[in-house]
Write a structure and sequence with these properties.
The protein has about 400 residues and is of the alpha/beta class. The protein has 14 helices and 16 strands. Helix 4 runs parallel beside helix 5. Bound molecules: benzoic acid.
């Protein structure tokens, strides 16, 4: 289903309509033309296990644009939303709806790495300026990198590679990893292994579960029988809530410490409750980051949505900030694609996560925080890797 959200009526009345009212008093030759709308396409999940991620990315992206006056380069904005259902099989069709059907000026999203692969393939062919606001699929900023494709989130590799050495520092030498059986799952546990094995760790077993299955019991029994020193997991959204609760309920957390990329405990703590206490994760954001930008962002998001900000909201917010910055640089002229892309490439965003810039492959260069759940909060206990860039292997852009 496609949903349209025009620039808020209130915002429109205070800006363009002011001009419109003045125009109605002028003789015909002097009537001011309304600037046409900039169309921003959004392909995100609004149903299923990743639904909460899609809502937070969308709401925070629109919040960033409204904070800048609700316009892009002086033009009103129309947001066209399509529910991706986190379904790679529907991704090409959904992307075409936005690019060929709606003729969007910009394309944003998705959450799911499999959806991203199909979406980016088409965006490259069509030349639509695209900002990936979550999916971490490596290829997006490696083999498939392109001048018109940016990512404001992370590569899957960035969020997991630093955890291996951290586990070894704690003497956790034998691990089992567990995840969903799709591109992001493979890349996350692969990146973890890439950091863990050279540091002296051994991966005893990699358990893969069909996406978006959340029946974990048999796998938890297997983990108990393998008796590893630690578990590394990638799950997100509703699946992460269920996994962390089941892990604790199975009595494993006390004897086998649980680790993961921060998606395991981000945006989920309220629902996980005490089951998440002590879980150690690595991620490019933590709500406990004590900076004026993060404080202001969290308060504004809470006020606007009634929900707690999380990493997904941050990525949406930075997508909005990037659009504002680039469109300002060309005074709203969407035909100036080269200049828009140049402005995006050179952007240095004051993000709630900290300062963020882009690598040559147009993926964020960012700090990766080590976080531990303490009293219901992802507390930053260190920086696992400062200013980490994805290797960008196979990307020819320089
Ligand atoms: C992914 O599919 O790339 C993904 C989904 C949710 C959280 C993080 C990554």
């Amino acid at each position: 289903m496609t949903t349209r959200i025009p620039t808020t009526r209130r915002r429109f009345l205070s800006t363009a309509a002011g001009a419109g009212a003045a125009a109605s008093l002028l003789p015909a030759p002097f009537v001011l033309a309304q600037p046409s709308k900039v169309k921003v396409g959004i392909l995100l999940p609004y149903t299923g296990t990743y639904a909460s991620l899609g809502h937070n990315i969308t709401d925070a992206m629109i919040m960033a644009i409204e904070e800048a006056g609700g316009m892009l380069g002086g033009r009103p904005v129309e947001y066209v939303k399509v529910d991706s259902e986190a379904d790679p099989a529907k991704a090409a069709n959904n992307t075409n709806k936005l690019i060929a059907g709606e003729k969007v000026d910009f394309l944003t999203g998705p959450v799911h790495s499999g959806v991203a692969m199909a979406m980016v393939k088409i965006a490259r062919e069509e030349g639509t300026i695209t900002i990936v606001s979550n999916a971490g699929a490596a290829a997006v900023t490696r083999q498939m990198c392109a001048p018109n494709v940016f990512r404001t989130s992370f590569s899957n590799w960035q969020t997991c590679f630093p955890m291996g050495p951290e586990m070894m520092k704690r003497g956790r030498k034998k691990a089992v990893s567990i995840t969903w059986n799709y591109a992001a799952g493979h890349e996350m546990i692969g990146a973890f292994k890439e950091g863990y094995v050279p540091a002296g760790g051994q991966v005893m077993k990699e358990i893969l579960i069909p996406f978006p299955n959340i029946e974990f019991q048999a796998h938890l029994t297997e983990i108990a029988s393998l008796k590893p020193d630690a578990v590394f997991a990638f799950f997100a959204g509703g699946g992460a809530v269920k996994f962390v609760k089941d892990y604790d309920a199975a009595g494993l957390k006390k004897t086998i410490p649980l680790h993961g990329s921060g998606f395991l405990t981000d945006g989920t703590l309220h629902a996980q409750g005490a089951a998440a206490e002590g879980v150690l994760t690595t991620l490019h954001y933590a709500e406990s980051l004590d900076t004026p930008t993060n404080k202001r962002f969290k308060e504004a998001f809470k006020k606007r949505t009634g929900r707690t900000a999380d990493v997904y909201a941050v990525q949406g917010y930075d997508t909005g900030q990037l659009l504002v910055h680039a469109m300002k640089s060309v005074k709203g002229d969407v035909r100036a694609k080269k200049e828009i892309m140049a402005a995006m490439r050179g952007a240095k965003l004051d993000s709630p996560r900290g300062t963020m810039s882009f690598s040559k492959a147009q993926n964020p260069i960012q700090d990766i925080y080590l976080r531990e759940v303490r009293k219901g909060d992802n507390v930053v206990i260190g920086v696992a890797h400062k200013a980490l860039a994805d290797p960008g292997t196979g990307c020819g852009m320089s």
